[in-house]
Amino acid sequence: MTASRFCTACGTPLRDGVRFCHRCGTPTDGSAPRAAAPTGGSAQQVLPWAVAGIALLCLLAFIVGQNIGRSRPGAAASAAGPVAAGEGRAPDISQMSPAERADRLFQRVMTYVSEGKSDSVAFFAPMAIQSQLALAPLDAHRRYDLGLLGMVSGDGAMARAQADTILKEAPDHLLGLILAMRSAGMVGDRAARERFAKHLTDVADRERAKRLTEYLDHDPDITAALREATNPSIAGPVGPR
Fold it and tell me: Are residues 64 and 23 in the same domain?
């Protein structure tokens, strides 16, 4: 590869040795953005929830889109979805701060989830996850975002790990309980899901009264989660016993 090469998607000059365009993330080998499927599987198997079009995750995508602009000043514009045709080049993520880059990639993934674009979710989710991890130490808000990325990536263990970390520091934290409830349902642990759902409903009023910043930022999602907790039929899929 030479420095004279240009990105086939946005025309940005490519530095020697890079695997992805630093402006738009397109692979430099000319391949379409997609994630490798596991042996004997397909891209659809990598993202069972996204492919199935689960209403819960679509709801999360839009809720998160509303919350980012409120919770992180100046992030709304940088976190906008992929640039549509005719709107010019994609934003140069290399010029963003680490937090802005994380917000941009997070919202991009959630937008793809809401649009049912599983291949794009599979390609960009690992970048979004790494961008969140780069902001360590993570607060509860970032851990919640990281947990959501794990869920849409089909990684219930990641979501549960973030929930456990949040709850270890604050056992009644609503975002930790929501992640724990949803990740338990995702992996088919009905008993754990019911336990976290009950805990969530038991402490919701008291916790909300604290008016923590992350609670205000995620208020629509907390409301949706409380509906899920009291009505399992509208929650995400629960696997076999």
Answer: no
The answer to whether residues 169 and 69 belong to one domain is yes
Q: CATH code at 135?
A: 1.25.40
The 10s digit of each residue's pLDDT in 4-58 is 566 666 666 666 766 666 555 566 665 544 443 333 333 333 333 333 334 455 4
Closest CA to 47 of 163, 175, 165, 186: 186
**239: in domain:** no
- Residue pair 178/201 in contact (Cβ under 8 Å)? The answer is no
Task: Report the phi/psi class of residue 11: left, alpha or beta, with left for phi > 0 and alpha for psi in -120 to 50.
Answer: left
Asked if residue 151 and residue 76 are part of one domain, the reply reads yes
Residue 70 DSSP SS3: helix
Structure-token pair, residue 79: 């976190």
Q: Across the chain, which distance is largest between two alpha carbons, in Å?
A: 61
Give the dihedral sign, CA 144/149/154/157: negative
CA–CA distances in Å: residue 23 to residues 30, 92, 196, 215 = 15, 4, 41, 33
Domain extent for 52? 43-89+97-234
From residue 59, alpha-carbon distances to 155, 161, 190, 205, 224 in Å are 18, 22, 22, 22, 9
